[in-house]
Amino acid sequence: DDSGSAIMSTPGKSPLVSIVMPYYDHDKYLVEAVNSVEALQYPNVELIVVDDCSPGLHAEDILRHHSFKNLKIVKHEQNRGHVDAKNTGIKHCHGELIVPLDSDDLLDPEYLTHTISAIEDKNVGVVLTDVNVFGDQQYTYTPARTKLDFTKLRTPSNTFLAKREAFKSVGFYDENLKY
Hints:
Layout: H1 5-9, E1 17-23, H2 30-38, E2 45-51, H3 59-63, E3 71-75, H4 82-92, E4 97-100, H5 111-119, E5 126-127, E6 131-133, E7 139-141, H6 147-151, E8 161-163, H7 164-170
């Protein structure tokens, strides 16, 4: 769906950012993850939650009364896996900019404010940031940004800002991979 491309080029309007959130068995974290999207200090965001046939509470039941206005829930009728859920979300979104966000992760309120300025360069397709790990352990993680980083076994972050065209150029996520 290319309907978001006009949004990107509309003068004076912030480009639409689509947050794609696969959901599977994270019922105790889902509301907090959605709240972090709602708290973003960026004016033009849609959220696509893909319920990958979660065995517990369904995303629709958890988020039925959530106040976030630009929320869409897509439900798989059978579990198809994390990667397929991300691709489903991308296919249902309208933004020219996409952020994959797991349903047990959070975005800082200023995340888009900082990353959008970097992606405006025509030669930039993806923007990665440091990751603040929280929970049982707390530390800052710098994901792989170069081929050398990959050889040192640093993995890329699963949350990043990307142009839709970057996803199209690589054929979206490889559904043969588990993650």
